[in-house]
Amino acid sequence: MSFLRAGAIYAVANVASAAVPFMLLPFLTRLLTPAQYGQVVSFSLLVTLCMTVAGLNAHAAIGVMWFRRSPEQVPSITATALAIAVVSTIAVAILLMAGVYSFPSMMPSITPGWAAAAALTAGSNVILQCRLVLLQGKNLPMSNAVLQISASILNVTLSMLAVIVLNLGSAGRNGGIVLAAMIMACAATILFMRSRELEWSPTREQVKTFISFGSPLILHSFAGVLISTADRWTIGLKLGAYELGVYGAGAQLGMVMAILADAFVKAYGPWLYARLKADTDTDKLRAIGAIYVAAPALVCVASGIGVVLYLISGILLGAKYQAAATVLPWFMLGGALNGVYMCTSVLFFFSGRTGVLASISMSSALCGTVGTWMLVANIGINGAAMGYAFTQGLLALFTTLVAINIFDLPWGRPRHAIAVWMRTIRRPPQPAVAP
């Protein structure tokens, strides 16, 4: 029941935090031309790309180390994570700014200043994620939800002021993203300090642990960027900013399913970590049962949400972006498949086998990118959406097949696993009473 309550809170938080920029979408699609909205999409893609290196995936390491280290070590670990995030972010900002300045044709809609801003935004997001992940590990979903929703409200408020009041167009929206991210990073650091969860005494062993954990994830994160954004990069390169703006608006609607899947995994991740740590036959069956139930459930939820979004897409997008509605079914399917992948990928994070996960991700990304490029060349923006779903399907399939082969879990007993999981839901196990 605790798992279900946490899942409900995370779902509400994800939906609410996503609903705030989602509510901004009808204004942007009426205030910005498709070409201007394409510039917003390009900047967001660059932020996503920067997150593969900026921060060195410190938030992912904290999530695992919370379960593996003693509580007394957490403040020092957190401080080390923030220091690594800041140093790596500054390095990425300098390198990216120099690269765009030297090769301006590489990103024609991005100036060196905006390139540096994208890196700073990515690093700031990693610092905020460190706080959110720690709250998640401590089983404080309400605190996590408040912080997450606050970040979205600030993001949209600043963007609304810049776009509507100051009439800054796409620069206003991008500027709101940057400023909100930096403010929330400062807020997260202050919250760490107030809760006495920062101790500025990093050790060589901690730095080495973060680097050894995060370095393989650079490849994995880069693969993740290709998987989630190859469709938009391809459209930007082959079809231009106008088509990218139209497609980006449809992609924003389609992200609803991915957001719901992420909410589920935020509750499922700590729950699965606890089952794996217990290492009993019953706990293993519960874990596998949850995975077997989650996959078809995600597909069913995606189908229902997709129908609703398609029916109201005209109201949400406006006349200039009507073509974007045709990509929704593929984004719903892709979001459900991404949820399946995230359920299984938790096993790799807990075991520390991030190098294996990186290999799987990169293989899926390369195959999916080639397929997306071919589909866009032949079908256009609908081909890009098909490529997104195809890539997510490859990732879910490869991750599941590898997990079945390398993790000693009862994969071959699906009925028994589901039955054990269902009994857990109906009647949670009671703690033992001391004699």
Automatic annotation (TrEMBL):
<feature type="transmembrane region" description="Helical">
    <location>
        <begin position="357"/>
        <end position="381"/>
    </location>
</feature>
<feature type="transmembrane region" description="Helical">
    <location>
        <begin position="387"/>
        <end position="407"/>
    </location>
</feature>
<feature type="transmembrane region" description="Helical">
    <location>
        <begin position="175"/>
        <end position="195"/>
    </location>
</feature>
<feature type="transmembrane region" description="Helical">
    <location>
        <begin position="40"/>
        <end position="67"/>
    </location>
</feature>
<keyword id="KW-1003">Cell membrane</keyword>
<feature type="transmembrane region" description="Helical">
    <location>
        <begin position="247"/>
        <end position="269"/>
    </location>
</feature>
<feature type="transmembrane region" description="Helical">
    <location>
        <begin position="113"/>
        <end position="134"/>
    </location>
</feature>
<keyword id="KW-0812">Transmembrane</keyword>
<feature type="transmembrane region" description="Helical">
    <location>
        <begin position="79"/>
        <end position="101"/>
    </location>
</feature>
<feature type="transmembrane region" description="Helical">
    <location>
        <begin position="328"/>
        <end position="350"/>
    </location>
</feature>
<dbReference type="InterPro" id="IPR050833">
    <property type="entry name" value="Poly_Biosynth_Transport"/>
</dbReference>
<feature type="transmembrane region" description="Helical">
    <location>
        <begin position="290"/>
        <end position="316"/>
    </location>
</feature>
<dbReference type="Pfam" id="PF01943">
    <property type="entry name" value="Polysacc_synt"/>
</dbReference>
<keyword id="KW-1133">Transmembrane helix</keyword>
<keyword id="KW-0472">Membrane</keyword>
<feature type="transmembrane region" description="Helical">
    <location>
        <begin position="207"/>
        <end position="227"/>
    </location>
</feature>
<feature type="transmembrane region" description="Helical">
    <location>
        <begin position="7"/>
        <end position="28"/>
    </location>
</feature>
<dbReference type="InterPro" id="IPR002797">
    <property type="entry name" value="Polysacc_synth"/>
</dbReference>
<feature type="transmembrane region" description="Helical">
    <location>
        <begin position="146"/>
        <end position="169"/>
    </location>
</feature>
<protein>
    <submittedName>
        <fullName>Oligosaccharide flippase family protein</fullName>
    </submittedName>
</protein>
